[in-house]
Amino acid sequence: MRIVTLLLTAALMLLSTMALATPVDTYEFKSPENQKRALSLAHELRCPQCQNQNLIDSNSPVARDLRLEVYKMVDEGKSDSEIVEFMTTRYGDFVLYKPRMEGRTYILWLGPVILLLIGISAGMLFIRKQRSQGAAAVDLTPEQQAELDALLKGSKPDVKHDKGQN
Asked: Where would one find the signal peptide in this protein (predicted)?
């Protein structure tokens, strides 16, 4: 009786994991070229739900539907630009991993370059300031130089200072 219960429990556990498995896309393309083109396009389009995965990597229902839509459009003979235009009209420019170069996306394209230039110029100003402060601090009076030389040699300096001087 225990063996039957154990086998029944194991079978139920196996069946429950099968229900959670996601179905694999089984779309049949008209040609291998269409399949290659459709997969390339689906790799370039972002899943609107996941936001950090392309249509191929995402397993969300929205991504699955969009993959099938891309596959069908490729088999219908639509061009890549027509498919991308359809997706951006429907979901906005967000679905593109590489946004177009236009007025509202200049900050995306030029922002990193501008930040890099600002960082380089700030670094150069900082280094220049440090060098000028370092050069000013090196200027010693002859008495201070003699005292420093004596300290470095290990003997006491012969130079006496007033209480007001450092």
From this structure: 1-21
